[in-house]
Amino acid sequence: MLYREAGQFKTSYRADQRIFPILQDRVVVGALLLVAFVAVPLWGSEYLVSALLIPWLILSLATLGLNILTGYAGQFSLGTAGFMAVGAFAAYGFQLRTPAVPLLLAFVLSGVCAAGVGAVFGLPSLRIKGMYLAVATLASQFFIEWLLTRVGWFTNYSSSGVINAQPMVIAGLAINTPPRRYLLVLAVVATLALAAKNLVRGRAGRAWMAVRDMDVAAEVIGIPMLRTKLSAFAVSSFYCGVAGALWVFAHVGSVDPQAFDLTRSLQVLTMVIIGGLGSVLGSFLGAGFIVLLPLFLPSVLSAVFGTALRPGLLPNIESFIFGALIIFFLIVEPQGLARLWQVTKEKLRLWPFPH
Amino acid sequence: MGHPRQKVGEVLLEVSGVSLSFGGVKALHQVSFQARERELCAIIGPNGAGKSSLLNIVNGVYQPSAGTISFAGVQRKSMSPREAALGGIARTFQNIALFKGMSVLDNIMTGRDAKMHSSLLAQALYWGPAQREEMEHRCHVEKLIDFLQIEHVRKTPVGRLPYGLQKRVELARALAAEPRLLLLDEPMAGMNVEEKQDMCRFILDVNDEFGTTILLIEHDMAVVMDLADRVVVLDYGRKIADGTPEEVRRNPEVIAAYLGVPTEADREAVAEGAG
Ligand SMILES: Nc1ncnc2c1ncn2[C@@H]1O[C@H](COP(=O)(O)OP(=O)(O)O)[C@@H](O)[C@H]1O
Ligand SMILES: [Mg+2]
Questions:
Q1: DSSP conformation letters of B61-72
Q2: CA–CA separation, B135 and B133 (whole Å)
Q3: Could you tell me the end-to-end alpha-carbon distance of chain A, in angstroms, rounded to an integer?
Q4: Which SS3 state, helix, strand or coil, does residue B90 take?
Q5: Cβ of A66 under 8 Å from any chain B Cβ?
Q6: CATH number at residue B202
Q7: Largest Cα–Cα distance of chain B, in whole Å?
Q8: Does residue B189 sit in the same domain as residue B79?
């Protein structure tokens, strides 16, 4: 009975067009933001913040990026990690060569670099679709990795190919503790998630989905194919680029180009599918599932089996269960966690009256 | 029947000598006709006569192998569907071509895409002008939703709607572009009697209220005779008749080709027409 929209009449299109039209949703989201922005930095343990929340938020951003491209615009891509790498190495380059550029602006510019690269590699999408496009984006993945490894300029001629992120400073404040790094990541991710929500519920999102659902009809309506597809590639790569920059600067501190290999691309793709194609919320849920599950599984397993198992067996069982869970999810709810959440909410709305 | 003929204005669309073939199949052969401003013109003919192909040529989905199209005084041999859309031609499809994963409202809003201009950045920030633009177009779309009586399903994904309603949503999406020329490919196919009546009323209202010129493909002769100011008959890719519904119904070639074996009533009609 608590989750009800009865009596909440929308009196204007503006009210109807809100991201969270239902009052209870707004309350919950407000509470969540309060916890995330105030409670966690104050009382969260270092493990929670550094090992769980920061990587989860950053990978959610990359997942959101790929979701814009694949979930909303319907264009396959296996190049996500490549675009993350562009963002990471660009941010490093900006900090190295143009130290006068403030950190946040450097992040934005590295996103813009990734967007440009993404748009170029999106050009084949005008001619090819589906699997073939996936293979073309695979080429971008390998090409970017190769370029960053072979051209010393990108790594400032580091002999190992590893780059070390410069210390982060914003307006004189050093971002050098886990809570500060977390707050930076959270602020960037929350802002970009809001921007993504605005895009997908507006004209850009409609054009992307129109091209995804029926490109002939979209063209007949007058939606420009070239601009729509390339904008999806650019926006998507922007998000991946910023995620890559955050990954180096706020999470791992130093990386080589191999940190952004095909495995990473596939991981993000899995997050999109598990979370739900074409859902902003789903991007966070999917990333959460993939990041958090491997961390909880070992403790669950050792609680169940105790010491009965040979130590070497545990990792194998882990990956087995992990794989099985993914398949289970795809069968039970092919539209992902976001859909599962929506169904639960609809049931909640009717509860306790089943009809 | 009995629409005032004086409503019709200048020639808006002129198709001259258009031919089209797919491999060996001649879908259209030297077809010419005109549609005047505010006219409701029906295109009829047996299955495979080339009706859909003709619409596809008019809005640039197919390019004719010969002949020209002139629309609103501009003559051209070929153009892209997008150019046609920007020029004021909208259409619906024989097999519904809605965006299945989107709500009714979003589907119709896409029809206004060409009229919206705010940049990606403005949309992402959803500030002043971008928000105002969205609201303005939403208002316009809501009027269409009212007009076509689909308020109750505005937020429903179109894939979940019954066939008849989907056809209506597709009409709404085409109308959202405020077209000068509306191409309707069998808008009533597969509908029950009641749905057909509704659709007929909507088409007439669009023609009357918005002054939209309409090219309509339809099989139901009763509907055609009722709605159309003029009828063009195609058979095997050729135009075999063109005139008022009355004239076309009495045309012996049409009776032979389209209506099959002439009935007693038709023979009388032909005799009257000849006499
Ligand atoms: N895309 C296409 N490829 C090949 N043949 C086609 C295509 N579209 C139409 N045709 C052929 O052109 C002819 C006319 O088809 P169409 O215009 O769909 O007829 P109608 O709409 O009058 O039933 C048919 O013989 C059909 O098989
Ligand atoms: Mg047809």
A1: SS--SEEEEEET
A2: 5
A3: 13
A4: strand
A5: no
A6: 3.40.50.300
A7: 73
A8: yes
Q: What is the DSSP letter of A165?
A: P
Query: Residue written as tokens 């084949």?
Result: A124
User: At a CB cut-off of 8 Å and minimum separation 6, what does B31 contact?
Assistant: B15, B17, B18, B19, B50, B54, B67, B234, B237, B238, B239
Cβ contacts of B126 on chain A, cutoff 8 Å: 198, 202
Asked if the structure places residue B93 within a domain, the reply is: no
Contact B45, B235 (CB under 8 A): yes
Structural domain count, chain A = 1
First vs last C-alpha separation in chain B: 23
Residues B124 and B143 in one domain: yes
Q: For residue A268, what are its two tokens?
A: 């993000």
Percent of chain A topping pLDDT 70: 94
For B132, nearest residue in chain A (alpha carbons): A14
The CA-atom distances, in angstroms, between B53 and each of B29, B49, B229 are 11, 9, 22
CA distance, residue A221 to nearest chain B CA (Å): 6
Ligand nearest, relative to CA of residue B23: 1
SS (H, E, C) B19-60: EEEECCEEEEEEEEEEEECCCEEEEECCCCCCHHHHHHHHCC
Lowest mean pLDDT, pick from A92-96, B118-122, B271-275: B271-275
Coil, strand or helix: which one is B215? Answer: strand
Residue type, B122: A
Closest CA to B49 of B240, B234, B256, B239: B234
Burial A268-289 (b: 16+ CB within 10 A, else e): bbbbbbbbbbbbbbbbbbbbbb
Does residue B97 lie within any of the structural domains?
no
Cβ B167 vs Cβ B196: under 8 Å: no
pTM: 0.90
Whether chain A has a CB inside 8 Å of the CB on B56: the answer is no
- Residues of A within 8 A of B130 (CB-CB) are 202
Domain interval for residue B151: 102-178
Tens digit of each residue's pLDDT (9 = 90 or more) over A14-32: 777 778 877 888 888 899 9
User: Residues A269, A271, A273, CA angle at the centre, nearest 5°?
Assistant: 70
CA-closest candidate to residue A242, choices A51, A50, A57, A101? A57
For residue B259, the distance in angstroms to the closest alpha carbon of chain A comes to 33
Tokens of A40: 């966690």
